[in-house]
Write a structure and sequence with these properties.
Part of the tripartite ATP-independent periplasmic (TRAP) transport system. The chain is about 75% helix and about 0% strand. With about 475 residues, the protein is mostly helical. The chain has one domain. The longest helix has about 35 residues.
């Protein structure tokens, strides 16, 4: 039996400390950075870390995060999403979709799903999306005697699509952590994102077809017909589609980088608010304040995660993880399934930001070295390391959809419960999200089994 040196296990103790201290209620950015600094000093006591290494953290934060032009897109995407919330675009869109789908079983629930998909392609702010759709759709669904579990589950699941469907803040962050092209990652996430939306749609339609009492149809007296419906489509459906074309079209056509497209989106959202007559000084002031606070919180998390990951690696965390993985003897697929299970379980307790910032830098080198045979080959061409990492990033992104819906810390559930009527119980919400979590796991399995779902678009556009 070899010698036991406690300093060899410091990286494992760092994770254990994080798992405990995150429940203290302190800001996560303080917890992550505080643990990194504390273990840096502990490493100094055992002569496995030197004080001068703390200066390397400053240069990594300043030279890595602060000077990264891709990260400039984050506050602009936040601004775009917040401005859309205030401009009334989503409210008009829901009304229009509801009229178009009024004769389809579960038409209002399907309208919420489609609205979540369209709004996901214009903003990646989950809190804003879930709160906005809860305030707009839930009272209407309750007045129409919708089943509370179906209503809340639909809203929570649809509101989280924005973190996967481009332009997504999570994908911007992942591209930086994995050193892969953010444009390729945007392309890779489109089909999986639409796949999840399609699974939600099929589930709602089939369930309401079997049991129509879950979702009573819109009374004919409230319907809009003829030219009134056409005008409603022109006023309510085309503006968000126009913004999607501006943002995503400019990226995929090569006219703009993701950072420039974020600026286009911010200007486009402001223009829509102006056209609707909502661009008043109080609204603009509120949007700017909320965007600044959200952006500051995210960048503080980036800085804290940089401290944590640097100390973790300096203390031999990478080697410890690789040794533990290799000693498990699971093989490439076994290791991938284990990592997916770890991310899924972490989703019960952590937000996507913490999971992404902590897990990806540690496990990405492991994934890049794995051999999946010809499973990732498309058109007979062997997959490159960048393609493997892109596929892995999309798998993690799909997996992290569940982190918003799984108790006890599903943030979408907190947002929904916080603004839902008091008649909606947390038990009804939990019951409602179970089918959608299962659908998300099914989507994950499909992307894992059919990598073309994630890699076909990047490969096609790259050619």
């Amino acid at each position: 039996m070899g010698n036991f040196y406690i300093e060899d296990w410091f990286p494992l103790f760092m994770f254990a400390s994080l798992g405990i201290l995150v429940f203290t209620g302190l800001p996560v950015a303080f917890v992550i950075s505080g643990i990194g600094i504390a273990f840096g000093f502990l490493g100094m006591a055992y002569d496995v870390f030197s004080f001068i290494e703390f200066f390397n953290i400053v240069s990594r934060i300043w030279g890595g995060i602060s000077e990264n032009m891709v990260m400039v897109a984050v506050p602009m995407f936040i601004y775009m999403g917040t401005m859309l919330e205030k401009s009334g675009v989503a409210e008009d869109l829901l009304e229009c979709l509801n009229m178009l789908l009024r004769k389809v079983p579960g038409g209002l629930a399907l309208s919420v799903t489609l609205m979540g998909t369209i709004m996901a392609a214009t903003t990646g702010i989950i809190g804003a999306s879930v709160v906005m759709m809860t305030l707009l759709a839930l009272p209407v669904m309750m007045r129409r005697n919708y089943d509370p579990s179906l209503a809340t589950g639909t809203i929570a699941a649809s509101g989280t699509l924005g973190i996967l469907i481009p332009p997504s803040i999570m994908l911007v962050l992942m591209s930086d952590l994995l050193s892969v092209s953010v444009g390729n990652l945007f392309l890779a996430a489109i089909i999986p994102g639409l796949l999840l939306a399609s699974l939600y749609t099929v589930y709602i339609f089939v369930r309401c077809q079997i049991n129509p009492s879950l979702a009573p149809p819109l009374p004919e007296g409230e319907a809009v017909h003829g030219m009134d419906l056409v005008r409603m489509m022109l006023r309510s459906f085309l503006p968000p589609v126009f913004l999607i074309v501006l943002v995503l079209g400019s990226i995929f056509a090569g006219f703009a980088t993701p950072t420039e497209a974020a600026g286009v989106g911010a200007v486009g959202a402001t223009f829509l608010a102006l056209v609707k007559g909502r661009l008043k000084w109080p609204v603009l002031k509120d949007v700017c304040e909320r965007s600044a606070l959200t952006g500051a919180m995210l960048f503080f998390l980036f800085a804290g995660a940089t401290v944590f990951s640097y100390v973790f690696r300096s203390l031999g965390g990478d080697d410890l993880v690789i040794d533990l993985v290799e000693s498990a003897g699971l093989g490439s697929w076994g290791i991938l399934l284990l990592l997916m299970m770890i991310v899924f379980i972490l989703g019960f307790f952590f937000d996507w930001v913490e999971i992404t910032l902590i897990v990806l830098p540690i496990f990405a080198p492991v994934i890049a070295q794995l051999d999946f045979g010809h499973h990732l080959d498309i058109g007979g061409i062997q997959a490159s390391e960048a393609q493997i990492l892109t596929w892995f990033a999309v798998l993690v992104a799909v997996n992290l959809q569940t982190s918003f819906l799984t108790p006890p810390f599903g943030f979408a559930l907190f947002y929904l419960k916080g603004v839902a009527p008091k008649s909606i119980s947390i038990q009804q919400i939990y019951k409602g999200i179970i089918p959608f979590v299962l659908l998300q796991v099914l989507g994950l399995i499909m992307v894992m089994y059919f990598p073309e779902l994630a890699l076909w678009m990047p490969n096609t556009f790259l050619e």
